[in-house]
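Worked example

This section walks through a single chain of length 207. The input is the sequence exactly as stored; nothing has been trimmed or padded.
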Amino acid sequence: KVWGEFSKYFKKDAILTTNTSTLLPSLFAEASGNPSRFLAWHFAMPVFILNIVDVMPHAGTDPAVTEIMIEHSRRIGQTPIYIAKEWPKYVYNEMFTSLLAAAQRLAVNGVASIEDIDRAWMVIMEMPRGPFGIMDNVGLDTCLAVTKEAVAADPNYPYGKEIIAMLQAKVDANELGRKTGKGFYTYPNPAYEQPGFVERVVPKYKK
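Given that input, the structure is written out below as tokens.
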């Protein structure tokens, strides 16, 4: 609907992109009014810290347009990830959602605390935040919507009902993460950013 309303205002040589992280560009291509110059250009958040962008054309995208966007991505300091075929979760998000699902399963089963799940990831991967800290920054309402979609698509999604219930409780309490001041952590100074949250022990080996 949005593309249909705005397409009449675009110049014929304009390159049109969508930043959606789950929907396919072919879903909007015709509505854009210029499908050969339409593709997905999805940034990882925060944009100029992670510096990576998915470039995903649909079957009708002009290859020259795709190349223009790949080069433009480099010019603005991003690492372009060319996606050769349409894929709902793109590249990073396909891996990222698997990480979040694993962390969520551990939490709803009481295997470890949210803090310790995050610590495990932060220490091993040397990252500034863990899965639950990441979810807070994405927005728990967004995480809930993505999880509901995944569970609806896969009736055998492991612990889907329990994970949805955990996220739904946060959304119902308006604890959506960083944007509301509280999610799994409290903001603007979440525990995972505080000294001592992660203990980096340097082992001493005997000769």
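What to look for: The radius of gyration is 20 Å.
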